[in-house]
Specification:
A hairpin with a 2-residue loop joins strand 3 and strand 4. By secondary structure, the protein is of the alpha+beta class. The protein has one domain. The termini are far apart.
Length: 237
């Protein structure tokens, strides 16, 4: 008579438990990897925006008289500032070709650019140039908006991961930002006025309170900062 084996195989229940555990581990790894990719993209975009800010100030150094570049306002942006008879409009795309900088964020959307035209018209600006037309940048503490500065002369921003309101490098408009309180702060950055928002990101599914969903990345130059750099460089007396 043959000898019966003492080794038992895995039961279906044991196999199912192992598969569930493996699935949880894989799902956790994928989720962590996705978060790391998002963090890397956001960090890279922020670094590029900081570099763009430095180049904007450097550009003003090189102009005589000193002034900031105009936005690129072409429907299909070519990267060159659009200036008519020395003047420009305040809002458009970053003139990356004029500046020699990156033109799009990590999600392949073009950077937006706003400028106080008193600092961009080719008659130049002085230490005495006032801030009547300068921008404000706000943040939030809880549900309350709080002003960071009220003398921004240039603002550059990315539409972030959700890309709402953005314009792709292929010249395709992304989905519009939905109206209402759920996207109140992202709408603030696209309403063509001189008021902007910069705050902690809140992902899709966030409640409408506290400004709603937000993932824009914003940098700015204040008039004091720009003038101080100009004086330091000997461009302004």
């Amino acid at each position: 008579m043959g000898k019966r084996s003492n080794e038992a195989g895995f039961t279906l229940i044991e196999i199912a438990v192992v598969l569930v555990i493996v699935g949880l581990l894989v799902g956790s790894f994928i989720g962590t990897l996705a978060d790391r990719i998002d963090d890397t993209r956001r960090d890279n975009t922020k670094r590029e925006l900081d570099e763009i800010k430095r180049v904007l100030i450097a550009y003003a150094f090189t102009q005589s008289p000193p002034h900031l570049p105009c936005p690129d306002t072409d429907v299909s942006p070519d990267g060159l500032e659009d200036r008519v008879l020395g003047n420009c409009v305040a809002t458009g795309y970053l003139p990356w070709g004029t500046l020699g900088v990156g033109f799009a964020d990590a999600w392949d959307n073009r950077y937006r650019y706003w400028v106080n035209t008193d600092y961009a018209n080719d008659i130049g600006f002085l230490l005495s140039t006032n801030d009547v037309n300068s921008g404000t940048v706000n943040t939030r503490i809880g549900n309350l908006k709080q002003e960071i500065i009220n003398n921004a002369v240039a603002v550059v921003y990315s539409h972030g991961k959700n890309m709402l309101g953005g314009h792709s490098v292929d010249d395709v408009d992304r989905a519009a930002i939905p109206g209402g309180a759920a996207h109140f702060d992202e709408l603030e950055n696209t309403d063509l006025d001189r008021h902007f928002m910069s705050r902690t990101p809140r992902e899709e599914g966030a409640s409408a309170i506290n400004g709603g969903i937000y993932d824009d990345i914003t940098v700015w130059i204040s008039s004091y900062e720009l003038k101080a750099k100009m004086v330091e460089a000997g461009v302004l007396p």
